[in-house]
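user: Kindly work through both lines:
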Amino acid sequence: MKTLKFIPKNKGQFTATLRKNVNDYFKEKGISTKGNSKIIIKSIVMLTGYLAPFVVMLTLPLSGWLIFPLSIIMGIGMAGIGMNVMHDAVHGSFSKQSWLNKLFGHTMYFIGGNTFNWKVQHNVMHHTYTNIEGFDEDIEPKGSLRLSKQSPLKKVHRYQYIYAFFLYCFMTLFRNVGEFFQLAKYNKAGVTKQQGTSPRKEMARLIFFKVAYLAIIIGLPLVFSGFSWWLILTGFLVMHAIAGLFMSTVFQMAHMVETAEQPTPDTHGNIENEWTIHELETTVNFSRKSRIFSWMIGGLNYQIEHHLFPNICHIHYPAISPIVERTALEFGLNYHTNRTFFTALGSHVRFLKTLGRS
């Protein structure tokens, strides 16, 4: 695995002060930084939204067209699991109990993904090297999408701000297939062994859960539902399109916008910045005042807080956000936020347009 170092340009006290201020909040309230009954209830809601339509599909005689609303609901539930349940659990912030984190982290398999790949790509690479070309896989070129200023510019990129959202619909499908190549790359580079596991074991686990996922999500409806095979496959695609569009758009709002920087290492392979400040400069919040929206997307509109404190459950982000903002401003640092979802969306579109033309 490639590595680089963060070399602070000045030995300030921002990191220590920020951690103290946030820790003091939890001490004063006498509460844990992990999840509580709120996230359990939310997990039940999200899992029900995903599984209940599937059970209805398997057990009740239905008209063929009903597969589409059921698939849409499953897609929303699928996105809900990814953003609200799996995300916190794999970060270890879902619960104080490690076995509960592991259990709910396995909900990744429910939606066709692989937990190990996600841990490496998201927890290790993205969170450590946010928006750094060659380290953060989230900004690597994806088909006809250019997401980094350092990536080669092609003629097709000129129109990516128009067709990007169509491609986002395929995000979960592309990821599910691409994980085979991704894991092979991790195995070859020695990343899998560095993570304390066996390449052969992880590949066998990946294959097993992919086969099990397809056998359940497509195989069971073929056997037990009254829908024709082409309706089942269409419903499967609709479900993934809804989940892919939803999750991709939300994740892009935090790092692929105009005020999020994409720094490059110096000639020695170092980033001359404090890691916490780097996260402030490469991450942007949005729509902080919308409680319903925040609840639905697992607090991912508070990406600054999530990147600085991934070990804290997202249910606490609205409370610690003012603390983080106040501390950043006290040290003369920027705290980037877009007021609404549509403000962030507009910034994302403009950013894609800029990347496609320069």
